[in-house]
Every structure is written in C-alpha cells, then in structure tokens.
Amino acid sequence: MPKANVDTPTPPSAPELSHVQRSAVSELLRVSPVADDLARRFEEAGFRLALVGGSVRDALLGRLGNDLDFTTDARPEAVLRIVRPWADAVWDVGIAFGTVGCRKAAAGDGGRQDFQIEITTYRSEAYDRASRKPEVRYGDTIEEDLVRRDFTVNAMAVALPRKEFVDPHHGLEDLAERVLRTPGTPEQSFSDDPLRMMRAARFAAQLGFEVAPEVVAAMTAMADRIGIVSAERVRDELNKLILGAHPRRGLQLLVDTGLAAHVLPELPALILERDEHHRHKDVYEHTLTVLEQAIALEEDGPDLVLRLAALLHDIGKPRTRRFEKDGRVSFHHHEVVGAKMTTARMRKLKYPNEQIKEVARLVELHLRFHGYGTGEWTDSAVRRYVRDAGPLLDRLHKLTRSDCTTRNKRKALALSRAYDGLEERIASLKQQEELDAIRPDLDGNEIMEILGIPPGPEVGTAYRHLLELRLEKGPLGRKAAVAELKDWWAARS
Ligand code: ATP
Ligand code: MG
Questions:
Q1: Distance between Cα 94 and ligand 1 center (Å)
Q2: pTM across the whole model
Q3: Parallel, antiparallel, or unpaired for β 179-180 and 164-166?
C-alpha cells in the first residue's frame, strides 16, 4: 500500500501532481489546527483518526470547505466520549451507521471558522438487497474501510497526526487524470449499492470528471437496479448533480446509460424523433441549453428551483405534440400538462411541497410572456403577470429569458428587447402604484376640523396642497402638517 508523507512529497510523475500536491498541502495547513487538535485527543485515547473521502479529494483539488470527514477505529460510543468535551455541539442522528457529527469553531485563515465534522467508524459493510439499506458492520483497518468506498478519488485518507497519505487504490492518479473509477469492479460495487451509479453522474457534474468506460458500461448494464434505492437518496444525488458546475455532463450520463429512464423518464422522452416534413427543434438539446442559460443568469449562487424549472419546463411537449394540416407542429397547453407532470415526478422523488409548488408554477408560467409580442399587453395584463408570478417573478424573468435558443441573432435580440420592455413596464407600474398609494399627513375630516370649515371645494384644495407637500418633503408628522395647513390657510385668507 503506498504511503507517503504529505509534508515531503515524492517527486511527482506528472506535472499535474505537483500542482495537486501543492494545493493539498495548503488546504491541509488551513484545517490542521482543528484536525491536529482532534487527532491528538484520539491518539491519547488509544485510537487512530484520518481525514478521509470527500475531504481528502477536495483538499487535493484545492476546494475543501469547512466540512471535514474523518474515519477512525474507535466505536461510536468512544467517539462520543472524545468529542463531547471538545466540540461546541454534537449530534448522533447517524450513530446507527457509525457516524458522529459535531461542530467546532477554530482559528482559520480568515479568523475563526466553524467546522462541521463527521467522524465515522471504519466500516466494512454488506448490503441487504431486500431492505434497500446498507447493513453496517464495523471494520478494524482503514484499508477495509477504503475499499468499500464508491470511487478511488473518494477512497484516499490522510492519517493524523503524522499526515501519512493512504491511497491503496491510486486515487491520486485518477484525480490527476480527472476520472472516476471504482476501487473494485464496478459491477460488484453497484450491486452492493446501486446509488453509486447516480453518484458517478453527480460527481461528473460537480467535478467535471470523466467516468471510466468500464464504469459507464456497468451503469448501462445495471441501470434498472436503481429501482431498489429509496426515492430520498436518489433525489439528494439528483439535486447535487443539478446544482453542480456541469449539470449537462451529469444529465447526459443519466440519459445515455438509461438511468434517467428510471429516475427521470421525462428527460429522455424529450428526445423526439424529428421527421423531414415536420421540422421542430430537438427539445432535449434545447432543454439542456436553457438550463445552462438559466445558470448563467443566477446572481446569488446555484438556485435549485430555477434549475429544476429550466430542466422540466418543456416536459409536457411529447404528450401534447400534434402534426397540423399545414405541416406545422404544435404543443398546445404543454405548459399546463408539463406543470402537472412536474408535480407528479417531484412528488415521486419526495421533494418538499414548497419546492414542488414553485417549480410547477414556473413551468406553468413559462410561456405566458409569448402573448406579449412587442408590447401589446395592457397595464392590467402586466399586473396580472406580476400577481400570478408572486414571489417567483425574478425566477420567471430568468426562465423566460433563458428559454430562447434560436440561432437567429435578430430574433433572439428582438425577444430579449421585448422582455426588457416588459421589465421596464413592471418597474414603472410599480413606481406609479407606490406613488398612488401616498396619502397626505391629514385626511379630509381632520382638515375640516382643524380649519373649522364644512365640506366643500376648499377641503379638496387643502388636501391637494398637503399631498404636494408630502410628495415634496416626505412624511411631515402630524404636528408639522397641522402648522403647514394653518399657515397655508392664513396666507390664503
Ligand atoms: P460532498 O459531501 O461534497 O457531497 P462527498 O464525497 O463528501 O461529497 P458524501 O456523500 O458526503 O460525499 O460521502 C462522504 C464519503 O463517503 C465519500 O467521499 C465516499 O468516500 C463515501 N461514500 C458516501 N456514500 C457512499 C456510497 N453510497 N457508497 C460508497 N461510499 C460512499
Ligand atoms: Mg461529504
């Protein structure tokens, strides 16, 4: 088993390795106060501790966050005894699977940082195929623990406190090559836990890695096994895939291997056969492009609801496709059908109700703008658009703008101009409505009382005077408004 000290790396065989190792060393230095501290406590109690899995992979890629995964030979009860007096908070929801979680604030580069830590006892698990759940068995060696991990790039460890690099499956080479391979045969690995097939697509999308051909072959051959995995586990991987930096890559892999036919059949169904007489765009390719265009419009980081809406916006098309007599193709009401299909699929995948409602609503509204033409909507139509979108308006803007994949530059520009026009009208209506809602500081009854006058045109004149003042100076407050009103009245008479 190759063991190397990270502090004194052996000369790298490929130029990438030196870069990889440099970033790993700096990432490990960043987390080392907290990791070293914890490792010392495990050592004093007679146990081993190693940074492992995603944390080592991400350290090597220079993208380690504040989530740290450790593995240890200590059993969960012993782990609890060590971390309770040390951590700021401890949770044991995962204890049945050998995992203890905790949070610890520690010095980091930008001042104090909160580290989220998971410590899992060495496992050597077997899987119960009927119950769909991994059966937990603890192991005695780190090698046993690493061999049951999903991919070689996730099967590396750094044993603490000496920072020994443990890489029995040559994950570092695969990482430098940016390729996902399984430690053992992919067939064995995927029959142990079919979710790993989804994880391959997820890591391809997150990391931009290739999936090794033998892994793709096993995914293709075994795609139907995903059926035994719980909807929640599938959904979580799907979300990470969609939220990744390269979702197209992950989605294409799901479609090409046949996994999508099981977990998201609406997606491969978008590959509509095109015939020469009825020309229409490839809805599948269009969808992937819309997703990428929507991502490019995100402002505050990845937005799951927007991305799901982009991915699902046209899923009603295959079912609503009609070949018209004039040779055209139509998809009448595909947005309504699509919204229903979205709800059904997301329910099946056990998404939270709020997310289901939001995504389905966006799918339903994605075509509404098409009636706008070059600005033909009345003010009330614009208001209805805003009201129907409600808190989703901003996302609807992004979805609608992304939903244009024409290669005709003039057409694309015209559409985007028209949408600019709609957004301007929404802004000016809003401003007008805010202005319309402004009232002077005193109402008609108060004016009559203060000036001691009966109802009549003078009340209206006084009211408009106070409204002018209010627009000019902002709210005056009652006292100042009364004084202004009296001055104005005195000057008039
Ligand atoms: P991230 O946390 O960024 O999503 P990760 O690689 O840490 O990525 P986790 O799901 O947190 O992924 O899992 C932590 C580690 O546990 C993985 O790196 C891998 O070594 C192992 N692992 C997780 N799930 C599985 C699985 N289904 N089969 C085998 N190993 C797994
Ligand atoms: Mg993790």
A1: 14
A2: 0.85
A3: unpaired
User: What tens digit of pLDDT does each residue of 10-64 get?
Assistant: 444 555 556 777 777 777 777 888 999 999 999 999 999 999 999 999 999 988 8
- Closest-CA residue to 258 (of 291, 229, 283, 227): 227
Q: Is any atom of ligand 1 closer than 6 Å to the C-beta of 12?
A: no
What CATH number is given for 265-437 in this structure? 1.10.3210
Domain boundaries of the chain, sorted by first residue: 1-173, 265-437, 444-492
In sequence order, what are the residues at sequence separation of 6 or more whose Cβ sits closer than 8 angstroms to the Cβ of residue 437?
A: none
Q: What is the C-alpha separation between 214 and 200, in angstroms, rounded? A: 12
Q: What whole-number distance in Å separates Cα of residue 124 and Cα of residue 188?
A: 14
154 C-alpha to ligand 2 centroid (Å): 10
pLDDT digits (tens, 9 = 90+) for 112-135: 889 999 999 999 866 655 555 667
196 lines ligand 1 (CB under 6 A): yes
DSSP string computed for 396-453 = HHHHHHHS---S-HHHHHHHHHHHHHHHHHHHHHHHHHHHHT---SS-HHHHHHHHT-
Residue 357 alpha carbon to ligand 2 centre in Å = 29
Q: In this structure, are residues 255 and 267 in contact, taking their beta carbons and an 8 Å threshold?
A: yes
Which CATH topology does 1-173 take?
Beta Polymerase; domain 2 (3.30.460)
Alpha helices in 243-316 (DSSP H): 247-257, 260-263, 283-296, 304-312
How does DSSP assign 198-234, residue by residue? Answer: HHHHHHHHHH--EE-HHHHHHHHHHGGGGGGS-HHHH
- Do 1-173 and 265-437 share a fold? no
The finding on whether 134 has its CB within 6 A of some atom of ligand 1 is no
Of 69, 158, 240, the residue with max ligand 1 atoms within 8 A of its CB, to mutate for a pocket test, comes to: 69
